[in-house]
Amino acid sequence: MKTTTILAAALVGALAFATTGARAEDINTRIGKITTEHGTPSKESVTKLYDEMDFQRACQAYIWGLPAVGLAEWQKANEDVFKVRNGQLVSFVSFEEKVGIMTPNYTTPYVATMVDLEKSGPFVFEVPKGLFAGMVMDVWQRQLADVGVLGPDKGEGGKFLILGPGESDPQAPGYIVVHSPTFNVFLGGRLLDPDTEKAIRQMTPGLRTYSYSERDNPPMEQVVPAGDRKWSQTPPRGMAYWERLAGIVRQEPVEERDRFFMAQLRFLGIEKGKAFQPDARQQKILTEAAVVGELMAKANTSDKRVEPAFWPNTRWKHALVVGVNQRKENYEQLDERAAWFYEATANAKAMLTETPGVGQRYIAAYQDKDGGLLDGGKSYRLHVPPNPPAKQFWSVTAYDEATRSFVVSPTKNTDLSSRKPDLAKNADGSVDVYFGPAEPKGHEKNWVQTVPGKGWFAYFRFYAPTEAFFDKSWALPDIENVK
Predict the structure, then answer these.
(1) Which pLDDT tens digit goes with each residue over 3-22?
(2) Are 231 and 101 spatial neighbours (Cβ–Cβ below 8 Å)?
């Protein structure tokens, strides 16, 4: 009897479900009301669902494309602003020259370029002996080689021969061969000598780039100063973002890890082997997704859920949270790489050092001690305890939330470093750093100026971090609002 009752109830339930599915029904969802007919979305609802599907995919494609779009914008600046030849190095020394770079180091000079190997063929990056920290990266900003003091040349100088997809090794003696899975490659680095003028004078003439086919007669003009030209490598907004991404998809080989993205992008007008000519519907979706995708990227960067605070019970977290190959055992570091490359450029083993006394580490803060976002109109203090664990030097820099580059204030005081000759120290050797729009009376030497109405964030850099950094026996307290 009990079994018969259960079967009867199940049959009634099944009939009720079948009856419900057979009639028109409105289903309330997070994207609004979806109308079904005989259980299937109506024609109008199919259009709505496809639009939402493509919008969601575009938002994720925005996040996925950040590393490559940042470099594509740099490449465009080389062509349109600096007007240099393919792969020619540009130097960035002054505040004004560096302000186009996302989260640049304030203290040390840069030299950098992009090279299109499809145009150049095998390419040479020649580095002289000296204190140079550089890298070769593919278009997705995966490190292919360290260059300089932590590279295979060990700071003694060397010639790096970069080969693109499908290019065979010419077996030429005297070259350090680097294979790139992409045609577009970033080359660059920093001059580390504390005597900046000396570093520029002695090292810059020896930094050279040229096609391997030109090795017997390289171009005479090599490193070009960025000068006072206005430029930016910050990923563009709106349709320009998708134009850069479409260009990368058209040119670069498709990797196994990205085939699902290729499948999704083709319904948005981005497809390998085809011109990017989105229709009105696709343009609307892409324009809206560029806005929401960037907001997602901002949240993913400023409130990194991929890892905990570096020092327990503080707001400080690693700025660089992605590995040089962007891989974990069971997944690709999609969110991690977006968290870094939304606001920064370049990655290298040296920047993720695990060895005391070499390399660098970057720790970031986006909030004050009380959890409030850093406000350019408010005043803050950061207490740096005695003996910061940095063998070379430490620095703290304020960056503009919108541009992810230096805060451009009237004084251009955007950074404070232990290399600052007149840095004011407390009796115990500690340092108090003051951030705010107005010069703090009595603390003028340790002031970083911010701009009212603009958000900002801070990077605290350790150059050649020592053991106390790694075992966390030294800790940096939070930035405090001093009102």
Answers:
(1) 454 444 444 333 334 444 44
(2) no
355-371 tens-digit pLDDT:
999 999 999 999 999 99
Which residue in this structure is represented by tokens 């030299």? 111
Domains and CATH numbers, the chain: 2-41 (no CATH), 43-299 (2.60.40.1610), 303-481 (2.60.120.600)
How far is CA 414 from its chain centroid? 20
CA distance 124 to 374: 44
Distance between CA atoms of residues 237 and 239, nearest Å: 7
Tell me the pLDDT band of 240, cut-offs 50, 70 and 90: very high
pLDDT of residue 14: 38
The conformation of residue 213, written as its DSSP 8-state character, comes to G
Q: Which residues on neighbouring strands pair with residue 146, listed in sequence order?
A: 135
Confirm if 62 and 241 have CB atoms less than 8 A apart.
yes
- Helix (H) or strand (E) holding 177, with range, is strand 176-179
Q: Could you tell me the CA-to-CA distances from 288 to 51, 55, 62, 392 in Å, in that order? A: 11, 8, 11, 46
Q: Long-range contacts of range 37-44, CB-CB < 8 Å, 24 or more positions apart?
A: none
pTM over 0.70: yes
Give me the pLDDT at residue 13, please. Answer: 36
CA 120 vs. chain centroid, Å, equals 26
3-state secondary structure of 44: helix
Query: How far apart are alpha carbons 408 and 95 in whole angstroms?
Result: 9
The full 3-state SS of 302-358, as one line of letters, equals HCCCCCCCCCCCCCCEECCCCCCCCECCCCECHHHHHHHHCCCCCCCHHHHCCCCCC
Which band of pLDDT confidence, cut at 50, 70 and 90, is reported for residue 242? very high
